[in-house]
Structure formats: structure tokens, C-alpha cells
Amino acid sequence: MDTEVSKPRVVVGVDGSHSSYEALRWAVRYADQVGGTVEAVAVWELPGLYGWSGPAVDMQVDEDETRRKMTQELADVLGAEAAGSVRTQVVHGNAADVLLRVAEGAEVLVVGSRGRGGFARALLGSVSQHVSQHASCPVVIVRSAER
User: Fold this and answer.
1) pLDDT (tens place) for every residue of the chain, 147 residues total
2) Which residues lie closer than 8 Å to 19 by C-beta, 6 or more apart?
3) Of 7, 30, 62, 88, which sits 20 to 30 A from 50 (CA to CA)?
4) Under 8 Å CB-to-CB from 43, ≥6 apart: which residues?
């Protein structure tokens, strides 16, 4: 019998922002406390891809670049050894929709309060606000001390 199935799953969104680094640290600490596993999710999307009729784009390059950045960020934030214990997923799509889908059945979904885009003075980013209102599991929104 696979013992991983019964462990609580902690899903965390990673996007390279300072608040996502804090969310990742929080998720790892929480998973350690509850004996769970951490699943880090990086989402990539080509802006304006839908309905766009431009030259062909090599989507594999963008996915590979996102995966490379995520691997580096996990090592930088957690250290190489701890980063190796985190499961990773790189998914193409809308960040909020992907995180909601991946977090189905999870113990908790952890996100940073603000991503890389948007308005600097906003209290919550659009993704953290959306998942907090629509997730099927508890959501923890972690704020970064850096402004």
C-alpha cells in the first residue's frame, strides 16, 4: 500500500515573487508539523495566447524555462536538500484556475499575498484573492515582509 496517499497534501503556488518564497517556507514548515507532503506548482501562460493569430510559438521553451526557474527558486529558498523533498508541477494555464484544480482534495492551499504583477499598493493580488474565494480547501495567504 502506498503510504503517500494518506499523507496530507500541502499545495503551494510558486511564481518567483518574495511572497511566494515566504509561502513556500510556510508550506514546508506546516507539512513538517502535520506529516504531509509539499506540492509546489508553477503556472505559465502566454499572454494573449487565446484568439491570437501570430507566428508559431515554441511553448516547450516557455515550459522548460519555467521549470528551470522553479528548480532554482526552490534550491535558493529551501536549500538543495530540502528542495529535493518537494514535489513539483509546472502547468500551462491561468494561475488561479490551475491552483484551484491542483488543490482539490488538499489539506491546504498556500499562496503569497502578491505576485509579480499588478498594482504595488494592492493588499492582495488577483490570484490570491480569487483562490481565497473559490478553493475547496482552506487557503493560507502569506505576506512578504519586503515591500
Assistant:
1) 455 457 999 999 999 889 999 999 999 999 999 999 999 999 987 655 455 455 445 556 678 888 999 999 999 999 999 999 999 999 999 999 999 999 999 999 999 987 655 545 555 678 999 999 999 999 999 987 765
2) 112, 113, 114, 115, 142, 143, 144
3) 88
4) 13, 15, 90, 91, 92, 93, 94, 95, 98, 99
